[in-house]
Amino acid sequence: MSSHSLHSRHERSFEANRFVYPVLSRRAGGLSIGVNLNPDKICNFNCIYCQVDRTMRSETRFVAMDRLLAELDSMLQLVVTGQIWQSEKFQETPQELRRLNDIAFSGDGEPTTYRNFDEIIASCAALLNAKKQADPFFHRVKLVLITNASQFHKRHVVNGLAILDTNQGEIWAKLDAGTEAYYRRINRAPVPFQRIVDNITAAAQIRPLVIQSLFMRIDGQPPPRDEIDAYCDRLATIQNNGGRIQCVQVYTVARTPAEPFVTPLGPSELDAIADRVRRQTGLPVTPFTSPG
């Protein structure tokens, strides 16, 4: 199996786990251990490019803390011993990708909507810190929050972000549009677009953020040029208001989306967008093309 096909396989299950799953991540450049805080598949966004089938709900309606931590502990053990690479899913992983990059809070919905989000972050950080003290293998492993930024203004999320800060965590905030109309078309969310921009700005005033932006073809058409210009303007506005952006990840569809009219951009199209963002914002931009 090629690394392209490995990158396109992001099933939210592994063995009998409910909350913790390993994926080979393009953007991590290796193995990422996902923590799914939305096993019920409920999300406050309904992105047209999402691969989650929300008509197939799980019977799990809440996060069982003890089970999640036990699954995370077991998964970390599989990685440190190398047993993970003997599993059917990962046995053909190229040697250069056999590295553990992070523990990522992501999954089947927006992780920050979970009411005990800050408690989960604290518990997982404590587990990882204990691993780091016991084994230098884990020293390079970081915590990553992959988020749509819609809840950054809420207290339990503010607390969770602060815990990430004190544990060398990273925040990857979604920004897929430059205008309200395009945002409504892509993310189909009830949250006003300005709330997303304001939340990203406020969070980035406290710590640098990674901006993650997915661009695609809709009914065969790439994003309009003026939409990319507006997107660049949004990034500039965040910076002009004191927000720090560590880098911008520009990527496209990797897995089969729920909507059939959504298809990936080609490498040259994605590179062109990345070049325009670099020129107009001065930010470091990394494009991630579709695997395959």
Low-confidence stretches: 1-13
Q: What is the straight-line distance between the termini?
A: 12 Å
Order of helices and strands: HEEHEHEHEHHEEHEEHE
Tell me roughly what share of residues is in helical segments: 25-40%
Shape: globular
Oligomer: single chain
Total helical elements: 8
Strand-pairing-aware structural class: alpha/beta
Account of the protein in words:
There is one protein chain. By secondary structure, the protein is of the alpha/beta class. It has a domain at 3-205. It is built from eight helices and ten strands. The longest helix has 18 residues, at 117-134. The termini are close together.
Give the key terms:
8-stranded mixed β-sheet; 10 strands; two-stranded antiparallel ribbon; globular; 292 residues
Write the layout of secondary structure elements.
Blueprint: H1 3-7, E1 20-25, E2 30-36, H2 65-80, E3 100-106, H3 117-134, E4 142-147, H4 155-166, E5 170-174, H5 180-187, H6 193-204, E6 209-214, E7 216-218, H7 225-240, E8 245-251, E9 262-264, H8 267-281, E10 285-288
Parallel strand pairs: 2-3, 3-4, 4-5, 5-6, 6-8, 8-10
Antiparallel strand pairs: 1-2, 7-9
Helix pairs in contact: 2-3, 3-4, 6-7, 7-8
